[in-house]
Amino acid sequence: MAESAVTFLVNRLTTLLEEEAELLSGIREKVDDLVDELERIKAFLADAKEDSNPQLQVRVKKSEM
């Protein structure tokens, strides 16, 4: 009886750990994508600050608040 309970728990834990590993495997790629996107936004805002268009400069300043 105890052996079957332990076997059940081991199987269940194995399944849970496999599912958790699968979920975590995609997170790094998503974080890298977000970092890339934020770098592009940062570069755009830096370029827009230097633009001579006053309306664009106002929008950039508002976005920084």
Average predicted local confidence, pLDDT: 86
The shape is: rod-shaped
Based on helices, strands and strand pairing, what is the structural class? mainly alpha
Query: How would you describe the oligomerization state of the chains in this entry?
Result: single chain
Query: How would a textbook summarize the main sheet?
Result: none
How many helical elements? 3
| Integer tally of domains | 1
Low-confidence stretches: none
The span between the termini is: 65 Å
Number of strands: 0
Radius of gyration: 25 Å
Q: How much of the polypeptide forms β-strand, as a percent range?
A: under 5%
Question: Which percent bin holds the helix content?
Answer: over 70%
The run of helices and strands is: HHH
Coiled coil: 17-51
Protein name: Disease resistance N-terminal domain-containing protein
Keywords: Coiled coil, Nucleotide-binding, Plant defense, Repeat
Domain Disease resistance N-terminal: 5-59
Attribute tags:
65 residues, mainly alpha, 3 helices, rod-shaped, nucleotide binding, nucleotide-binding, Disease resistance N-terminal domain-containing protein, plant defense
Detailed description of the structure:
This protein is an all-alpha fold and 65 residues long. The chain has one domain. The protein is 91% helix and 0% strand. It is built from three helices and no strands. Helix 2 packs across helix 3. The longest helix has 24 residues. The radius of gyration is 25 Å and the shape is rod-shaped. The N and C termini lie far apart (65 Å). The mean pLDDT is 86.
